[in-house]
Design goal:
Blueprint: E1 4-6, E2 13-15, E3 25-29, E4 33-38, E5 45-47, E6 54-56, E7 71-76, E8 82-84, E9 98-102, E10 105-112, E11 115-122, E12 129-138, E13 144-157, H1 159-164, H2 166-169, E14 173-178, E15 183-188, E16 208-214, E17 220-224, H3 225-229, H4 239-243, E18 256-266, E19 271-282, H5 286-295, H6 300-318, E20 321-324, H7 328-348, E21 363-364, H8 365-371, H9 380-391, E22 403-404, E23 410-411, H10 421-433, E24 442-443, E25 451-452, H11 453-466, E26 495-496, H12 497-516, H13 523-540, E27 550-551, E28 557-558, E29 568-569, H14 571-578, H15 584-598, E30 599-600, E31 603-604, E32 607-608, E33 634-635, H16 636-648, H17 652-662, H18 669-672, E34 680-683, E35 694-697, H19 702-714, E36 717-719, E37 723-726, E38 736-743, E39 746-753, E40 762-767, E41 770-772, E42 776-778, E43 784-791
Parallel strand pairs: 39-43
Antiparallel strand pairs: 1-2, 2-9, 3-4, 4-5, 6-13, 7-8, 7-13, 9-10, 10-11, 11-12, 12-19, 13-18, 14-15, 15-16, 16-19, 17-18, 20-38, 21-22, 22-23, 24-25, 26-27, 27-28, 29-32, 30-31, 33-34, 34-35, 36-37, 37-42, 38-39, 40-41, 40-43
Helix pairs in contact: 7-19, 8-10, 9-10, 10-12, 12-13, 12-14, 14-15, 14-16, 16-17, 16-19
The structure holds alpha-D-glucopyranose.
Length: 793
């Protein structure tokens, strides 16, 4: 079944059948004010934090799903006919709707009973509000009178407390309408800022006022959900819309909503813009700013201006890279949707989606560090800021919070990998920017006075060196990258083989950085630690045809041919290559084993066979249904590393084959379920009868990695300290490709030719007509540079 398609230029996804198998969402935000918006108008809005600053509610696990949202109801004042401008919540006339998700905006179009509508949802860059510009055109040929009602349901503060303590929480809600401003205001006189669900009563109030307004005079309004919806009804058939009776009463209690009804007349052929907007005003500034907030964005010019700004910001974000490969589908992702998803995941911090409700967890340390690689190219300042945030989650001994909220709150777990990801973020940032000065900039520790970033990096080395066990591999603790290998070895403890490879890879990056920075002082020590990890892996972890995944209790080998389930894991094959292990024959064998034993129609599986028995000395993975999540699904994030590893081996056909298989719009949507324009965390594998179903879309490390791996390793254009490296590893069937990339102020126009049909190996490179030695383009002061690359001899 087909629910939509990309626009011709690939920059929009157009949903033509609103009854998608799951909500297909988009994000509109400016970095402070965030909103999700589905193809059916569902979604949340929050200010800065979906946990602490939740503006609107979203009912999790609800039936039907995806409610409430940002709804606009129409009631024909003559016929009494009712519909909504997105298919849901009223749910009429599926065929006439079109929803367009673009970069930073969503537009819902409909044509119902002679009223053509188009609602543009976006968040201005400089104003903390969302705008719903509703354009109505009367195509019916007769005069029309319509009641147009915008509707939201408020949460007002702490989303988790709102959920678990609603019976008490509702006693602190206040909402009132101010006639001269034509605006409704709502807040809560109580606020909890702890991250947990708690009974602790903090002595404070929510620090925001929410406002909801429209640019045409209000005929009536509502502030209480029960009065709007009515008993035993839902958003599908609200009593107030049906009866046309909104109470126009303020309230100081209850489930608080904002409903604004405005009555309009449309002559035949006439078009009118009705502009709803909802936003926040910090409490101390409420009196001085509320008039300005309510009156802003009432005219078309200011809205067009703000929308043009949003489009320009995204255009500028995308302008750093551009590709033209023989694969049109890949081009759509590489030029738009991959970097877009990566940036959204970075900005949202992975906490809010249709799957993550923004109530359970803060920023993951490892997730955040990986997300940094999505934006080093486009936003150096933001990358720097995020590195600072990460540094501040570290103790002097190198241990870091596993997840944190940025306000000093966080949680230590015993994952063995977390601190090492810091090295990835710092090295990618410096490679891109050349900003070695970062190493001397100071950031505080959780438990100590500020120290330079270099010292933080060396604290990580200290952690790596000391967190080792019997075989010289990292003590597994409560997990490594794989959160569900959480009881390896039971209480006795186990060792992470992937951890050993990962430590080696990160320490190798650090050695390279110290040398490039002209600070080689600690390099010998770091190199020695790196070599010990490489040696430990080589000595103990080869299983004959692949690398094992872990040691459990009593030297038990996990991820080995001796096992019944989980014989082979993806990460210890790909990272053997990424870690630079020396034995090429083994690496090739390991990667071939991965291809043979992990491959399925939907991509490479995270491990196989999936576990079918609970093993408390392995952990959560064995408790999970087979073929889903970490228990044998196609987990897309490590699949990106498999692509990287194939490229490092120079095997372009294999790398591209994985890449193509994983493109999200390849599978029938009735099977795939999740959005076809972004990657999901995982795709159910052939070990489950629901094979092919994707889940946890948008907020996944896949976003940043697929973007970077495809650009850096398949196209092979990647930053190094010395300059931009060109080392494509492409399918032999490609005659070549073109790419543009900005690096240290120069825009490179790169043309790659592959006359001999090879998979890798640069024959010659000419920069502005002059041949160069090697594959690194020297750093240049020219604004533009033309690069011709010939693969093969
Ligand atoms: C989830 C987590 C990520 C973890 C992965 C594998 O995506 O966000 O941190 O590495 O699962 O367990």
């Amino acid at each position: 079944m087909n629910y939509g398609r990309f626009s011709d230029d690939g920059r929009e996804y157009i949903i033509t059948n609103a009854a998608t198998p799951a909500p297909w969402i988009n994000y509109i935000y400016n970095g402070r004010y965030f909103a999700t918006i589905s193809n059916n108008g569902g979604g949340i809005s929050y200010y800065k934090s979906p946990l602490h600053g939740r503006i609107t509610r979203y009912r999790i696990n609800d039936v039907p799903p995806d409610r409430p949202g940002k709804y606009i109801y129409i009631r024909d004042l003559d016929s009494g006919s009712i519909w909504s401008l997105t298919w849901q919540p009223v749910g009429r006339r599926v065929e006439a709707y079109r929803v367009i998700h673009g970069f930073g905006y969503t537009r819902a179009e409909a044509d119902v009973e002679g009223i053509a509508s188009s609602v543009l949802y976006f968040v201005p860059a400089d104003d903390d509000r969302e705008i719903w510009r509703t354009r109505l055109t009367n195509t019916s040929g007769r005069p029309r009178r319509l009641a147009v009602t915008g509707y939201v349901e408020f949460a007002l503060g702490h989303a988790l407390v709102d959920l678990i303590n609603q019976c008490d929480d509702q006693h602190f809600n206040r909402a009132h309408f101010e006639k001269d401003l034509n605006a409704l205001f709502a807040t809560k006189t109580y606020w909890v800022t702890e991250t947990r669900g708690t009974q602790h009563q903090e002595n404070k109030e929510w620090d925001q006022w929410a406002f909801f307004t429209v640019n045409t005079p209000i005929a009536a309004y509502e502030t209480v959900r029960e009065r709007f919806i009515g008993p035993y009804r839902s958003e599908t058939n609200p009593l107030a819309v049906e009866s046309g009776q909104l109470s126009s009463r303020d309230t100081d209690f209850g489930n608080t909503v904002g409903a604004l009804q405005t009555d309009i007349e449309l002559a035949p052929g006439q078009t009118r813009d009705i502009v709803f907007s909802m936003g926040v005003i910090p409490k101390p500034e409420f009196e001085s700013r509320k008039r300005g907030a309510a009156l802003a964005f009432r005219d078309s010019a200011s809205i067009e201006g703000a929308f043009a700004q949003v489009r320009e910001n995204w255009r500028s974000f995308f302008s750093r890279t551009r590709v033209e490969t023989p694969d049109a589908q890949a081009n759509i992702f590489l030029n738009g949707w991959s970097p877009y998803q990566a940036k959204v995941a970075f900005d949202v911090g992975r906490v809010a989606s249709f799957y993550y409700w923004g109530i359970g967890r803060g920023f993951g340390f490892r997730d955040t560090a990986q997300d940094v690689i999505a934006i080093t190219l486009s936003d150096r300042a933001k990358a720097r800021e995020r590195i600072g945030l990460l540094a501040r989650q570290m103790q002097k001994d190198g241990r870091v919070y596993h997840h944190f909220y940025g306000d000093g709150q966080g949680e230590f777990t015993k994952h063995c990998d977390d601190p090492l990801w810091f090295i990835l973020a710092v090295t990618e940032y410096i490679k891109e920017t050349g900003d070695f000065g970062l190493l001397d900039e100071k950031e505080t520790y959780l438990d100590a006075e500020p120290g330079p970033i270099l010292e933080h990096l060396l604290a990580v080395v200290h952690f790596a060196r000391t967190n080792t066990a019997r075989h010289g591999l990292p003590i597994f603790g409560r997990g490594d990258w794989n959160d569900t290998l959480d009881y390896i070895g039971g209480e006795e403890g186990g060792e992470s083989v992937w951890g050993g490879m990962f430590y080696a890879a990160m320490l190798d990056r650090l050695v390279e950085l110290l040398e490039a920075a002209g600070r080689p002082g600690s390099a010998p020590e770091v190199r020695a630690v790196r070599d010990r990890f490489r040696a430990a892996v080589e000595e103990h972890c080869w299983d004959g045809e692949w690398y094992i995944r872990a040691f459990g209790e009593n030297d038990r080998r996990i991820g080995s041919r001796e096992n019944t389930y989980g014989k082979i894991f993806i990460n210890t094959q790909s990272w053997a290559v990424i870690a630079g292990l020396p034995d090429r024959a083994r690496l090739v064998r390991a990667m071939d084993s991965a291809r043979r034993l992990l491959g399925c129609t939907y991509g490479p599986k995270i491990c196989a066979p999936a576990f079918r028995e609970i093993d408390p000395k392995i952990g959560l993975i064995t408790r999970c249904v087979r073929g889903k999540k970490e228990n044998g699904a196609v987990f897309c994030h490590p699949a990106a590393w498999l692509i990287q590893a194939e490229c490092l081996l120079g095997r372009g056909d294999a790398a591209y084959d994985y890449y193509r298989t994983l493109l999200p719009d390849r599978v029938d949507s009735d099977i795939f379920v999740a959005e076809p324009y972004v990657y999901s965390q995982y795709i159910t594998s052939d070990e489950h009868e629901g094979a092919g179903r994707a889940s946890h879309s948008w907020q996944t490390g896949t976003a940043a990695w697929m973007y970077r791996v495809s650009f850096d390793y398949i196209l092979g254009i990647r930053p190094t300290y010395a300059g931009l490296l060109i080392d494509p590893v492409i399918p032999s069937s490609w005659p070549g490709f073109k790419a543009e990339r900005v690096f240290r102020g120069t825009r490179y126009f790169i043309e790659v030719e592959n006359p001999d049909g090879v998979e890798s190996g640069v024959g010659s490179i000419a920069v502005d007509g002059h041949p160069i030695e090697g594959s690194i383009l020297p750093i240049s002061d020219a604004p533009e540079s033309g690069v011709r690359v010939r693969l093969g001899r």
